[in-house]
Structure formats: structure tokens, C-alpha cells
Amino acid sequence: MNQVQWLRSENFQRMLWPLMALVGILLFNLFFTPGFFHIEIKDGRFFGSLVDIANRAAPVMLLAIGMTLVFATGGVDLSVGAVMAISGAIAATVIRPDYVKGVLEYGEVQSLFLVLSIPLFFSLLAGLWNGLLVAVIGIQPIIATLILMVAGRGIAQLITQGQIVVFIHEPFQYIGSGFLFGLPFPIILVLLTFTVTYLLTRRTGLGLFIEAIGANSVASRFMGIRERLITLSVYIFSGFCAGLAGLIVCADIKAADANNAGLFLELDAIAAVIIGGTMWGGRFTIFGSIVGTLIIQSLTTTILTRGVAPEVTLVFKAFVIILVALIQSEKFRRLFSGRMARKKVPAS
Amino acid sequence: MDRNNVLIDIKRVSKSFPGVLALDQVDFRLRRGEVHGLMGENGAGKSTLIKVLTGLYQRDDGEILFEGEPFSLSSPQEAAVHGLSTLYQEINLIPALSVAENIYIGREPMRLGRIDWKQINGDARQAIRRLDLDIDVTQPVSSYSVAIQQLVAITRSLEISAKVLILDEPTSSLDLAEVAQLFKVIRKLKEDGIGILFVTHFIDQVYEITDRITVLRNGAFIGEYETNKLPRIELIAHMLGKDPETFSLEQTAEKTKQEKAKAGQTLLEVKQLERKGSMTAFDLAINKGEVLGLAGLLGSGRTETARLLFGIDRSTGGSIRLEGEETVISSPRKAISHLFAFCPENRKEEGIIEDLTVRENIILALQARQGIFRPLSGRRQSEIAEKYIELLDIKTPSDSQAVKNLSGGNQQKVIIARWLATEPRFLILDEPTRGIDVGAKAEIQKLILGLSEDGLAILFISSELEEVIACCDRIAVLRDRKILSELSGEAKEEATIMQVIASKDVNP
After folding, report:
1. How far is B374 from chain A (nearest CA, A)?
2. Residue A17 vs residues A30, A258, A288, A292: alpha-carbon distances, Å
């Protein structure tokens, strides 16, 4: 494909508006927030607002990667926030199994492998549950995942007995606050997940199958695509991403807070996917969802650094999300360009 | 004719949608105490007429009189007020509520500000008994058969005081005994002076129950006939738009003698394959390099046969032999693994994937067979797409054009290309030329003949008899979910096919 073709291609067109929005926010900061682009290297580690934005956005980026695929099949996963809480609660409980009984001693130090694999196993299980409800039993995705969204937080509270389980576990804390190649480890984790997901969907037939299922599941089945199995796998994968995000948050604050971990983050993830240009049922772009997450996070950071009152932050955020979503809508753009065109007619 | 007897008089009603004239000056007259069949093939305008009558659509032109008064509804809700009830194929009852609740929902008799259950149940029992039905009205509707549910829905309509009952394909999901039960009720209602408009695809049923028949074709009024004075062959001729005079009246039996099939091995042999409630047991054999046609009216079981063979619907009995070996085809995937291919009738819902590109639509079935982890490279994809775009002369600016931007004929070609790319040995084409222009139609027909010469076995389904006759070596004729006979050689001509469709069942 030559360059001109690429600029006209569907893929690029879809990415154009989200990218422009992100550039817009960054440009605003270039002029109005001093030192926004300043990046310092201390002890071989990068510091600065940009790194901070990416680091803070990491959990939602992970959610958004899973959510993108779910979205593409024509579904939605509302349970990711709750799964984050479950995953964190399990990790903390593995580290301090007797904390909830009031025993403050740690006992033996748990291996990092167990601290990571047990929560992730249960996250996969949560995804499997969602997938079974949607793909096998045929419940509406929004209802099916709502079950775990509500129940999951309860499960997390049961695990921690309603307490905030604090812990110290150096290797595990690295997941949340460590550095690798000068970058915060969560960012590395996102890059890794993104790359693996990208290769898995775009370098195999999987991505096309997912898009086909989302755009027309009946036709896909008639073509011999394993529509149920793929839908099921996509929900399992979303559960895995949520579990990973839960581990980052838990490791970062060195505590499992079943009430607040991942609260409302499913909404951020959904917003990021939509802003990123993934259609509900059909074409998806994981990169777009990453950009979408960055838009939301850089917006939040910008608002906070501008000293806007926290109460107004959410309203402001909503406003920008509506704006980007509108710009994305072809109908809206046509309305706008149509009016412009009409205005030009009398002048000529 | 006694004018007072006329319940509904539709005069020269027209209705058009963008680009289509759905009704073109249609007349229809329903009298008190008659069952009036409304007949026509797909796109004839039957459902549009019903929707105009019941206020779902607004007519563009013409006049409707109800009991002699000008009559115009702005919404379906108003229809009930005038005593006009419509029953659709899907039953509009609330499954979890009891029979009595369903009958009186929204109009429950009250006593002291509370629902009077005693009265509801008593009234419901009486109302149900009027249809000679004896069921427990306090049981949920879902615990009864579809036929009983239909009758409950009818009871509800009657209780809202129906003068006119519109039955839109009420029997399509009923078995024989259930149909008999429904007909018993219809006859009773007829005696009570209710006018019944009956839409169905089952010819036998029309002759069993209706007094008059109105035939529509392509939105135009063809005629109103008294059922017992209209020979079946003429009815079919009217529906299909053929001149009955030209039919040769030779004995069908002689003509259906099997011609020795073309020299070729048998690819697929079906014995007593059936699916209860959708297709009566049938035998079918198809040879390599042969085009087998399925002819019959809409709803005769053509698509059902195709779906059974492709494993979309599971059969409830019978066997399939593929090159002599017993094979169970339980899913489309299984069928595809045996190198079957299926271009479905509903191009938009079941065939193309609108948002994907032409290239992706073409390679999808092949990629699905290869599985996830053996992806076709971008270059290979383009090669395959380009090959079939050229071979089938698909008109598209490029292979990365979204399929939704193509015309109907080209979309159809994309689906055919998708299957040809899998190099199948058995291709099922369900209405491949419907809704596409004449030029593309001829191309697809030519393509079918070319493919069969290359040794592909093809099952060809079409509503257009000329097309079936022109393309097929043998033709199986269906009616009412049954394969009646097979025609080949000399016998495959329109007159014979229509005679077979019109023939009375020897042993119903």
C-alpha cells in the first residue's frame, strides 16, 4: 500500500479523529501548562507528566484491550471493575491468608508465582462465567455481565471480610510501582499485552472472525466460523485483562480495597473503546482504544493540573467525551459539513 | 350481492415505498360469515395490504369502507376498537401469565378496587368453551401447545368484540391435528357471522377452509374467485402469472417417469430425511456435475430442505450418504468439512457481512475452514479476491470496498465467490437471483451451468420456474413441506410443475 492509499484507508480514517483529539489536548497543555512535556531522567528512570498519564492510564488500558474485543463481537463486559476487585482481594489474601482473622503475622512469604497465578486463574474463571452466559446460554451481554458486576464486588468483600487488607510483598509491589527499561512496570505490561493481543488478532484469522461474528453472527455460523467458542474466549480474555489490571492497582497501593478497587472503571473502559473508534459489533482497533484511554486520562490530568474544582471534573470529562463521540459519528459530521456546503452555495 | 353483507370493502388502494409500488390499486372485499383467502407469492403485497387495513401503514390512494362507512385508521390500536383483530404467525401472548389473564389483560373486571379473579376465570372458561375447547384457564399459556395458544389468542380477539379476524399464516407452525382443531374453530366463527381473512402458503388448506380467494401478484390485484369454482391449476397460474390455457393437460404421472440420470457418480444420497414440524421425510439423490432444482411455492419446504442438508437445522430422522458412506451432518461446520457450500436466501441477514470488505467476505469461508492459526497472507487474500472478482465479473472499485456499497447482484456474486474459493463439491444456491437485475441474473445462471460442467453438484432453488427449468437437469417439486415428485428430461416444463403443485394429495 502506498502512502496516499494508506491516508485514505478505512483504518486510518477511523483513527484520525481520536488522534486529533489527543493531539488537541496535548497542544492545549503545551501552551497552558508549563513543564507538561518536560521529562526528567533520574537514576535511569523517566519522570514527567506524560509518563505519569500513561502510568495512571495503565489499568484502564488493560481493561480497554479486553473490552475492545468484547465490543467487536457485539457485546459488552460490565463486570471488569468488579473482577479487578476480586483479583486484588485474592492476591492480598494469598499474601496474608490470616489477616482477616485478625492475625497480623505474615507467616511464610508466598512465592510471587502463587500471588499472581491464583488471582489470574479466578479472573479467567470470572470471564468464563460471563462467556458461558453470553455465548452458550444466550443471555444479553449487558444483563449477563451485570450479574458479576454486582455480585463480583460482593464476592471481593467476602474474600476480604469487608476489610482493607494491607500488605508488604516486595516482588509483588514491583508489578504496581516498579520500573523496567526506565519505564513504570504497568506501562511495560500494557505494551506487552497490547503487542500479544495485536499479533494474536491481526496476524492470525482471529481478528477477522471476531469482526465477522460481531457484524453478522448468523452469516458467520453459516460459514463455519466457531462463533460460540470465539465469543466465549473473548469474554475469558476480558476477564484476564481485568484480573491483570486489578493486580496492578492492588500492588500499587499495597492493599486490597474491595469497595473501591476498579470502581466505575468499566465505564471508563467502555468510553475509551468508543472514543477509540471501535464499532459495536464489527470493526475494532485496539490501538484506537489505547488512544481513547490516553485521551480520557490526559484530560483528567489536565483538568486537575489546571486547578479545576474536583466536582466539576466529571462534568468537564463528560463534555469532552460527548464531543469526541459526536465528531466520530458520521451522521453528525455529515450534518455539519452539509450545512457548510449549503452556506457556500449562495456565495458562488 | 347483498351490500349489507359486506364488512370490509377496499377500493383501488395504492401504497408505495421509495422505489417500490407495493400495492397498485388493489380491491378486496370481505363479507360477513366468509373465510376469504388472500394468496400470492413473496412480494405480492399481502402483508402490505393487511398493514394498510389495520392502520400500521397509511395508504397513498384509494378508499376503505367498513360496514359501508368510510374508514381510516391512524394506528393499529384503533383497529381493535372497530372490531378488527389480527393474529400473526408469532403469537402475541404473555407466556408466563395464565390463559385467563391473557384473555383479559388490560381489561380485568374489578370488584371493590381489586381484580375479580373469580369472574376472570369464570368468564375465561366460558369464552374458551365457546370454541369447544376444554382447558384449565388458570394454567400459564406456555404450558399449552402452539395450537392451543393460537386459539387462546383468537379467544382474546373475540372477547374484544371482533367482527373481522385477520389470520396471517396461523398454521405455519402447527401439525395436522392442530390445524384441524384450528379449522374447526374457524368454521364455528364463520357461522357466527365473523368475516375471516386468511393468509397462508398451504394450497391444501386454502381449498379446505376458504369460500373465496383473492389473488395478488407484484402488488397488483389479479382477481377474486369463488374457491370451489377455481381449479387449483388456475390458482397457481394466477399466483405465478402464467396463462393456464397454455398448460398441456397430459397426465403428470407419465411425465414424471425417471429419466436415466446423467452419467456421473452419485455424490449425495438422502433417505427419508425429515425434521418434525418443518419437513416431511424425503428421498433425494444428486450426482456429480448435476444441477438439481427444487421448485415449489413459497413455504413449500425448499429452504427447509437446504437447511437440513447443510446442517443448519438438525434432522429428526433419516440418513445421508456421501459417496456411499453414511454421514451425519449436524452443523454447518460439519457440512463445510465435507466440502458443502450454501448461499442462503436472505443475502443480507445470512450471507454477506456488510461492514467487511469484498476481499474479506470472499476469503472468510476458506479462512474459517483453515482455522485461526493458519492465516491466509495478505497477498494470498488479494490473489484469491482478485481471481474471483475477475472470474465472476464482480463490479467493485477495489477489493477493499465495503460489501454494503455493492449492488445486490454483485453482493450475491461475492457470496458465490466466497464458496467457490473453498473449492466445494456440493453447492446449495437458495434463490441466488432474487432481487437482482436481469443482466446479473443471466450471468449467474450461466455461471451455474459452467460450474456443473466442471463436476460440481448443485442444488438450485428458485421461485422462478423458467430459471429452474433452464438451469436444472432434474427438478424436485415440493408442496406443503413435502417432495411430491421428480421431473427430468421432457417432463421438466412449467405446465407439469404447476400440475404437480396443484395435484391433490392422494393420501392426505
Report:
1. 7
2. 20, 37, 10, 10
